[in-house]
Predict the 3D structure of the following.
Amino acid sequence: MTDTHHPPTGIDLMQNPALNKGTGFTEAERDALKLRGLLPPRVFTIQEQEARILENFRQKTSALEKYIMMAALQDRNETLFYRTVLDNVSEMMPIIYTPTVGEACQKLGHIFRRARGLYISLHDRGKIRDVLENWPRRDVDVIVVTDGERILGLGDLGAQGMGIPIGKLSLYTALAGIHPQRCLPITLDVGTNNAQLLSDSLYFGILQKRARGDEYAEFVDEFVMAVQRVFPGVVLQFEDFATENAIHLLETYRNRICTFNDDIQGTAGVTLAGLLAANRLTKRPLQDEQILFYGAGEAASGIGNLIVSAIVKQGITPEQARSRIWFVDSKGLVVRSRTDLARHKLPYAHEHEGIKDLEKIVEALRPTCIIGVSGQPQTFTEQILHKMGEFNERPMVFSLSNPTANSECTAEQAYRYTDGRAIFASGSPFPPCQYDGKTFIPGQGNNAYIFPGLGLGVIASRAKHVTDEMFYIAASTLAHMVTEEYLAQGTIFPPLERIREVSHAIGTAVAQEAYDTGLATAPRPKNLSEYVRSLQYEPEYEMYL
């Protein structure tokens, strides 16, 4: 942690976002730390400062302007930033992360103010360890890294994808309490195939097409190995890599280092939690669901695999479990007769005629649950939703693509076209909906319910690896925190206002799993729940005297 017993003084102190309190410095601190005259004379509490932030925030006319404002606050006063986010999480999350972070990444070269984290490019080959050692701290608990190729549903944004690791780590701190000074966002700049960015005079990445093949693999491997030497024991989270690379990197490193891929495993965890909670409404066990994925990339593969693991726990064979899950990709239904299937799709290629049209696929399979992970907006049409309502008393409609503009359908459409019977979840937030005199509060299947708490548990136990069982435990813990009151409103996730409580529960359960399976390297505390809570950073000003 930053040494608050011997902080810098004067302007140097005010320019350190980890230590700066702005007008919150007390009279005594102003005298002792040579701040007298450098600040307006009145001392404000953090609550009064937060009120000022909120007043200005709410006067901004666009989400992007709000994002820029909060990024500036984070760069000058981290404590106030996290206090404001934590106290107003439902209002702030859509700004500091999805959906606004997508637009921010698209325009990052134009709204860039101040560097945060590390940028490691192909030009740094052979000296990546030296670059990592430029980071001023060694006590890093978690790194989120992207290569910018598949940012949300927006595609290749190159080095401008840095907004994603920054946003993810902001959620680690706000939602789970990982200390901000122990978080490190990293972008691997291997070029971009986005012609618009390559011709943009303000794009700040290297100006070349993406590296592929051995060049790419060797570069990433040098990075991973250097991370282990510079930050031993750190949790390394891969984020927004293209499907083929994401799956390959997870398979390559998951049993060698402490790592996971949130797009594959975190998405799987939150979706499984939604299914488990929804089963309480359908009164139907998970193994009886007929699940249709629209989209067959890394997210679908990860969700499908975790659902299979959950069903197997009920005594069903993996083959029987996979028979309940179907994929649809850009060429239609994934069936065994196709010869163009990527390896991750093969376990879900079943005997069936090939069908291309989604509506006809729904007619043929009569799914109980349809899950959108395609990035293709408005593909769950009125006709498809009507059919889901015809086949099911309580159809599950999970429209998970981000950002909001890429959602397969809106919450209002899901409720309207199923006569208010849909059990709906989305990746980005939708407002409450009115239908037939009833108010529905749509559940947001945001990975933020899973990865911060899971990371907290891994850090608390100093686990050697992150396992699929940890994600199952996280999903199960989350599902059990959904009350009957929430279910009655159509909400299959707890409200975001309970997110710190959720993260603590998940962190404790995941740490327990690490100790029970021998993966933990930290001594087992007497009271694990209290120990995990003690690790959670609270955004409050420290006294320097």
